Amino acid sequence: MNKGTVVVTGGSKRIGKAICMNLAKNGFSVVVHYRESKNEAQSVAEEIETFGVSSSIVHCDLSDELSTSTMINRANEKIGEIQGLINNASVFEYDDISNFEKNKWDLHMSVNGKSQLILINSLMNQLSENNEGSIVNISDQKIASPNPDYLSYTASRFAMMGMTNALALGLAPRVRINSVAPGHTLASPDQTDSGLIKAQKQSPLGRGPTPDEIAESVTFLMNNKSITGQTIFVDCGERLLSRKRDIVFETEE
After folding, report:
1. Rounded CA separation 69/65 (Å)
2. Beta strands 29-34 and 133-138: pairing type?
3. Which pLDDT belongs to residue 196?
4. N or C: which end of the chain has fewer CB within 10 A?
């Protein structure tokens, strides 16, 4: 039974790929969004189809408002009506108050905030009257435990949290919107694998979440029609540590 078609932004790699695979295994057709990784996106789409559901790929630079405004419709033309959206793609670049730059702030807010509103609006506009939709935003445990590092990124995640809460009312009853807030799962470009493992071992559960565990939480929210306006923290309790700085500065040698 096909449960509908979902667009996953940044679906060609890392956590996005795990989300695509888990949705496919649970009966969703999936459109894999990519910006530069076309070959990887095509490979993910082919793997998705082995689960007996449909798949396609769609290109978009989420910092480009015009391209973003047409992405859902382009996906619709390839595979049919879109009922779901996973806002997974994001910008993650370092800044703090001492080196704050307007361009970096604007980029984070554009990709991590405004583009998602544009996509949600597009989803609503093409959703047929007799269908229901579901949206899951991939956030960050930082919204419960912020620190001064990665300031523009952190601010964009708080914007996402506000958007999720506000739209839970604004989109109801036809569309549900929730979020998943992972802890540190995979090493960022500024981290070593050993630094990441050290940080994960400091969590209350003594480890970090896996991409599959995050993906399972996304699929749970897509399936459960009684949940909206909620954030699930998949962080092994990391937010409870209330770190004073980002783990790059606390755990790297």
Report:
1. 6
2. unpaired
3. 87
4. N
What is the band of 163 on the pLDDT scale with cuts at 50, 70, 90? very high
- For domain 5-187+203-242, is the CATH number 3.40.50.720? yes
Q: Which residue in 185, 214, 155, 230 sits closest to 23, CA to CA?
A: 214
Asked if residue 201 has pLDDT above 70, the reply is yes
- Which distant-in-sequence residues (6+ apart) come within 8 Å of 37 by Cβ? 12, 13
Its pTM stands at 0.96
Sign of the Cα torsion 36, 83, 168, 65 reads: positive
**DSSP H helical ranges for the chain:** 14-25, 38-49, 65-79, 102-109, 115-126, 151-170, 193-201, 211-223, 247-251
What 3-state DSSP class applies to 245?
coil
Is-contact 157 143, C-beta < 8 A? yes
pLDDT at position 199 is 87
Q: Which amino acid is at 157?
A: R
